Amino acid sequence: MLERKFNIGDRIRCVKTGVIGKCIKFYIPTACEEQTMVLTDDGRRYHAPTRLWEKVLAVSIENDVTAIRNRLLKSVSVPTVFLQRFGG
pTM of the prediction? Predict the structure, then answer.
């Protein structure tokens, strides 16, 4: 049995695709390994094998980290086009 490092309600990210969302369900289909379903920020449901998910920060903390990162990058003269490309 796989030991998860997250649970229902946690904010998680798929390490293969980068999809992020709130964990809403675990299930084991008949013919494959345990799956985890998330509710993404835009309301879609997405699932992938449980082994591909990792816990991430809460949205409010992510936003704070992004804002701090962008201020630091601007202070060292990183062009705006690069900030926009990476969510800034």
Answer: 0.65
- Range of 17's domain? 1-56
d(CA 75, CA 88): 14
d(CA 4, CA 8): 11
> Do residue 1 and residue 23 come from a single domain?
yes
Is residue 46 domain-shared with residue 4, that is, in the same domain?
yes
- pLDDT averaged per 10 residues in sequence order, the chain, 88 residues: 84 93 95 95 94 84 70 71 58
Taken as a whole, the chain contains a residue count of 88
Q: DSSP readout, 50-70?
A: GGGEEE---HHHHHHHHHHHH
**3-state SS, residue 78:** coil
